[in-house]
Amino acid sequence: MPQSVTVTYKFREFKTSLSASATLSQLLEQSCAYFHVSDSSSFELHYRNNEIDLSLPFRLANLPQGSKLTLVKSGSSGGASVTIKLQVIAPERDPTFEQPPPSKLVQKFRSTDGLFDVILKYESILETKLLDRTSYYDDTKIGKRVYCEYQPVVQNISGVIENAEDLKSTSLRSLGITKGNHSLRLQFRRVEVRAEDLEKVKKDEEVKAEEVKEEEARDPTEVKEVKEVNIQEPKEPEVPKKPKEHLTDNSQATVDPPSIPSTASLPSPAKVLPGLEVYSPKLTKRVSHQDPDDSVYDMTVEQARAYQALLSKRATNGPMMTRAQREKLNSSRSPVVTECIIRVRFPDLTTVQLILSASDTLKELYSTLVEQVIYLNDKERASLDGEEDPVFFELMTLHPQVKVLTSSKDFGKQLVSHCGLGRRSLLVYREKKPSDKDHYVREEYLANAKPLNDMGEIRLEEAMTTEPELKKSANEIARGLRPNGTKKVPKWFKFGKK
């Protein structure tokens, strides 16, 4: 149902009706056109002397029926500063795409910037193709290599921008993004360009690889680059090159292939803790998530009987006890925690697992992280040597967010008795002063990091979901319900022959 709105400007009024899905930025453009204002980017809409967020639709703006708004000229020139958080959805069937770190997805722009310039800036920061992205995938069912192009699609609460021309003509202000914090979602629409025979492509790649080897064997000092043709080849990890060998009269020119550095060549920490494991999200394989059917949560007869027995056991009137006796009984029933398996999650989603004793304090946890796990920059090393508080980060629980470690005054707290940590706990790492670090864990641990799929609980969940379900047929269920089966039933329950 359309709702009436009145906009006033210099003792003049503009009355119109808006649908519930119409945005307030559209109302601003209509008002500026009615009052013959050329530059709508320098005006704002106010309601009761308060600025209105132009990115919201009318139904979410919390404006009453027949509200009267005021058109006011903005005080900032050249557009206000806005903070944009970009959510990048991985393109479909693109093996070369890597999810960017969350710290690089939050950037500041001017409200007058266009969407094309915003995506272009993110492309330079993330060092990933976002506008003109191409890739390929191998379809083994049809035996073809399919080459694809990906068209960017930007979405926010105001609408969806699909075409490249709309990206160039649309600005942040036209979407209602004038100031404050906002989020944009970037998706990719896959368009298949052409397909080639998979066997033929692989043969051509083998022939090219042999030609490159022959050229390297002829002249090892010159390595010719293989040009990419309409596709982006998967990026291989950079490895350090070995020094060139000196040629002698009796020796042939050979080139050693580049080798990945082993763990022995990496610097090792002073003391490797038992149970220290590092999980990296970059190596994690994506698992297709399917919502289970509602019938999975239906209670069986055995579960209902067990639940009924539990309720009857709790409702049984036992002997009256004092408060001290009840606490003593609860403490004897509660499990005793002897060791704590602590997982620390960093801002780049890297997770480090430590095993400490229940009697250890936060000082042991802090010293373990600083001396062996965390990658320290120059400022953090200087803070450790200074006379001020050396703790440059905070540790807090995930939900509810309770700060466990904030300063050196918390070093005397024990993990279980004072902090309330259980046998398995997850702590979130947050820096007091934000830094521009690409990684927070030392490189020697990241080299041997495991994917998140290797966690024990995730493996158990995958094993439970992959187990074949034993489903009974309708005949087996009916055979079990028949009274003339092997089960003994009363005579009155048996059906007669007539």
UniProtKB/TrEMBL annotation:
Residues 7-71 form the TUG ubiquitin-like domain. Pfam families: TUG-UBL1. Residues 204-268 are annotated as: Disordered. Residues 204-248 have a biased composition (Basic and acidic residues). One of its GO terms (biological process) is intracellular protein transport. GO terms for cellular component: cytoplasm; nucleus; vesicle membrane. This is DEKNAAC103664. It comes from Brettanomyces naardenensis. SUPFAM superfamilies: Ubiquitin-like.
